[in-house]
Write a structure and sequence with these properties.
Elements lengths: L2 E11 L5 H12 L9 H12 L3 H12 L6 H16 L4 E8 L3 H9 L4 E8 L6 H18 L4 E4 L7 H16 L4 E7 L3 H7 L24 H16 L6 E6 L12 H10 L4 E5 L8 H17 L4 E4 L7 H11 L10
Parallel strand pairs: 1-2, 1-3, 3-4, 5-6, 5-7, 7-8
Helix pairs in contact: 1-3, 3-11, 4-12, 5-6, 7-9, 7-12, 10-11
Length: about 350
């Protein structure tokens, strides 16, 4: 009887909070054609001339500010999830990183040592579809299987942005923080260039073509990051009973000069403080695991921006991490049938 294995895929982290390690990580990350969607030579020039000379040193300092004694928070927390999920499932579970270690290739070859494993369930740890997260992870799984001729039939858990158990886990994980009282709740999602939304639109004519594109039903929504983050926000606020005038949506982590989704988190933090919001709570539902973008960008720099603009307190709701409801949702999805991986 053929056995099944589960591969969880997260984004990744440098091996150390040092300039050299960060430079290697950023080079791998930014040279992915799904991240910077430009011809290779243009991408190489941007990364080598504009990013790698300065950004690794800056990013290394940011990583040092959140680094744990046991390692990168993203990697350590991911390994804890891997272990906890393994205890819930009667099948092998591995956690892989799209960039950095442990890589998708390393983990697939590790699984391939077990001759009984013939089925692989891939679970990208991203609630919302984007070429630079979900699609690139699937492409890498396909590449490794093809290069090494691994006898694995692959299925993929689709983006879970509207799954009831994901929404329930998100709301329940935020409950204690929201119960303390707050003036405003900010949903800060990872940013994305507008060009990525258009390239992921199979019709080529829906996303960003009209003001109400996210609210108008269309096949494009299956791969539309913006539609999906608004769906998550709507379902969360309905379930948590957050009034419409007590929350906002913003986008963080922009890079480069391309036009990105608006409004930016930095601008919204300043505007909320100037509007008189004193107690701000921030949640980052695009991330299921705490990382640089949550702990440092929001929990440290975002807090500083908000307080300097007149706010009094900013509390960051932790990501789902090891929350029992989240582990239960993951275990539930691993027991369901999912669409087979289409040929790439």
């Amino acid at each position: 009887m053929h056995a099944r294995a589960v591969m969880l895929i997260n984004l990744g982290s440098p091996d150390a909070p040092e300039t050299g390690a960060v430079r290697r990580y950023l080079n791998q990350f930014l040279m992915d054609s799904q991240v910077i969607q430009l011809p290779w030579i243009v991408r190489r020039l941007i990364v080598s001339l504009l990013v790698l000379p300065r950004r690794p040193k800056q990013s290394a300092a940011a990583y040092r500010s959140i680094w744990w004694q046991s390692g990168s928070p993203l990697v350590v927390l991911s390994q804890r999830v891997e272990k906890a999920l393994q205890q819930k499932l009667n099948m092998p579970v591995v956690m892989a990183m799209r960039y950095g270690s442990p890589s998708i290739e390393q983990q697939l070859l590790k699984l391939a040592k077990n001759d009984a494993i013939r089925e692989l369930l891939v679970l990208p740890m991203y609630p919302h579809y984007a070429d630079s997260t979900v699609h690139t992870a699937i492409l890498e799984v396909s590449r490794v299987i093809k290069v090494h001729r691994l006898p694995l039939a692959v299925t993929v858990v689709p983006p879970f942005y509207a799954q009831p158990d994901y929404i329930d886990a998100l709301v329940n994980s935020a409950g204690a923080c929201l119960a303390k009282g707050y003036d405003h709740l900010l949903f800060s999602y990872h940013g994305l260039p507008e060009s990525h939304l258009r390239s992921a639109d199979p019709s080529g004519s829906h996303c960003l073509a009209r003001a109400d594109c996210c609210a108008t039903p269309a096949p494009a929504h299956a791969t539309c990051y913006r539609h999906q983050i608004y769906a998550t926000t709507r379902l969360f606020t309905q379930r948590a009973q957050v009034a419409a005038d007590r929350y906002s949506v913003a986008f963080q982590s922009r890079l480069g000069r391309a036009r990105w989704l608006e409004p930016s988190t930095e601008n919204v933090l300043r505007e909320l403080a100037q509007r008189g919001v004193k107690r701000l709570v921030v949640i980052c539902p695009a991330f299921v695991t705490d990382c640089l973008e949550t702990l440092e960008e929001i929990g440290m720099r975002g807090k500083e921006i908000f307080i300097e603009a007149g706010g009094e307190s900013l509390e960051l709701i932790p990501c789902l991490n090891e929350h029992p409801d989240w582990l239960g949702a993951l275990a539930n999805w691993c027991g369901q049938e999912h669409p087979p991986l289409a040929s790439q």
